[in-house]
């Protein structure tokens, strides 16, 4: 209740501010949207990640923290989602280690031990590209916006070594993600429209042009899409849109596993797919 009132009060404040300066209000609104409030690594997570070989890569002025576990099979790159970090993969990593895969995980921009004060999927896709060039994985597994950023990466760079891509609870349309944020905050039309204009100014394209479903059309790798039918964060329909355009993919629908999909059932689907 208190959190909801705080959110609405911020929205009301920025709506009022928009009548003084729309660009200023939109910049403040966008700053809230792209700055994660969680995702830093706690003590127990740090202990687990310490079992890896850690290496910092660079993209422009940003540092990218990567974690590496050795093996003899193919290399799998793991890309976590919003307000998370590489430790979210602990259960899956332990199972992959038992099967002797080479595992690489990276922390997203402004998450975990990576650099940047703000996050966006385009920057994340460049982090992923940097990690892919360094580690040459054959398989990418991305959760939520990590799945979206993985698709953005492969659409742009078409890395030939990628054989399989697994998308867990991935959003399809950035415009829909943005709309849910606008609705949650209660922004008026002045703020909402100016946010879109600011995105064009910063990134060169409108929000509706950033689409996982559209970008997967260019991907030749085999795809596995796993999405919970009752996902409260990313609607199940997003998975259907991605599946319709991902030419060499299959969709697995779960029930009751939520958005995190951090479950042994999901791990079994992943193993079945990567070992096929």
UniProtKB/TrEMBL annotation:
Pfam families: Abhydrolase_1 (PF00561). Keywords: Hydrolase. GO terms for molecular function: hydrolase activity. The keyword Transferase does not apply. Residues 75-174 form the AB hydrolase-1 domain. InterPro entries: AB_hydrolase_1 (IPR000073), AB_hydrolase_fold (IPR029058). It comes from the Bacteria. The keyword DNA-binding does not apply. This is Alpha/beta hydrolase.
